[in-house]
Amino acid sequence: MSGLDVTRLGREFIESIGRLCGPGEKFLVKFEEPTDERYGWVPTMRPIDKYIQYGLVLLDKPPGPTSHEVVAWVKRILGVSKAGHGGTLEPP
Amino acid sequence: MLPIALEKMTKIIGFIMHSSKEYVCVMDVHAPVSEDELRRVLGEFKGVIYQRPPLRSSVKRSVRRRAVHEIELLEYDGKLALMRVACDAGTYIRKLCWDIGLVLGVGAHMRELRRTKTGPFHESHGLVRLQELSEAVYRWKVEGKDDMLRKTVMPGEYIVCGMPLIVLRDTAVESIAHGAKLAAPGVSMVSERLRKGDRVAMLTLKGELVAIGKAVMSSYEIIEASKGIVVEPLRVVMETGLYPRAWKREGAGVDGP
């Protein structure tokens, strides 16, 4: 894949972030330039181990177990050393 | 719904922990009240409310102010009320139901609760059950196919939705990954709405999250500036070594790509 393809896919990914929860970001451009395909990855194209390391799971939490317990299960299922949840700190 | 950040993204999940939430709950009203009366009382709970955290809670039990942005009655059969509540983080829904019962004069309590929104994430983005996650891992480890896993896990970059963004030039990435401040020449693009003092997410041109920082210039100042610091780092997410070092080293000149 060429640098130009990666730049286009990167730009599409960046735009998808803003559109997940809103109308999308409006950008001012300072330096319009391509990215070098030799370094890093468009997030959706990371090798699977990196993809998980930089990943997020939107879990359908079963009622009953605490968030803390559920996070421990997710860590074990995916074999990751660290994970953290974005709920509230206490049961509401 | 519970967003769970893995490994590198663990560092920044706390940024949405304190964002607004949306719940759907079932409230049990202890004696019949009319729907009109219930709607009138629910309306009184919209806006800023005062709550003392319940006995069994993990925070200091002093009265706190929380905003209830929306409270919508979805269904009511004279006893059970299905409601949608949008509120600040740290609002106790159980307590809210209890207090609604007091104002109704007949008492009420929360029967069931489900969170439908946390920060930028909504139920409609597609939730993953533990069972599906475990099947996806099985397919990957045993059958060598990672397609399901790539659907059940999403890039953690989406955590920063809602934050203003700065897109870095390739040459600035490695120094930010090392924890350096961002200088004006390292910027490729910036969200127009960025103001001085805002929390801002710094991405590569490929969309990878490098770090979250605090803007010390507004978007228009950044576009005008030819030098100077534009962002101070708060949390670095990206590992080092992915992008080339482009800064000057003593006696080595410029170590470019």
Account of the protein in words:
The complex is a heterodimer of chains A (92) and B (257). Chain A is an alpha+beta fold and 92 residues long. Chain A folds into two domains: 45 residues, no CATH class; 37 residues, no CATH class. The longest helix of chain A is centred in the first third of the chain and has 19 residues. Chain A is elongated, with a radius of gyration of 18 Å. With 257 residues, chain B is an alpha+beta fold. Chain B folds into two domains: 103 residues, Alpha-Beta Plaits (2-Layer Sandwich); 91 residues, PUA domain (Archaeosine Trna-guanine Transglycosylase, Chain: A, domain 4). Helix content of chain B is 25%, strand content 35%. Chain B has seven helices and 16 strands. In chain B, the strands form three sheets. A six-stranded antiparallel sheet of chain B has the order 3-4-5-2-6-7. Chain B has a six-stranded mixed sheet with strand order 10-14-13-12-9-11. Chain B starts with a strand and ends with a strand. The C terminus of chain B is likely disordered. Chains A and B meet through helix 1, strand 1, helix 2, strand 2 and helix 3 of A and strand 1, helix 1, strand 6, strand 7 and helix 4 of B. Strand 2 of chain A pairs antiparallel with strand 8 of chain B, so a sheet runs across the interface.
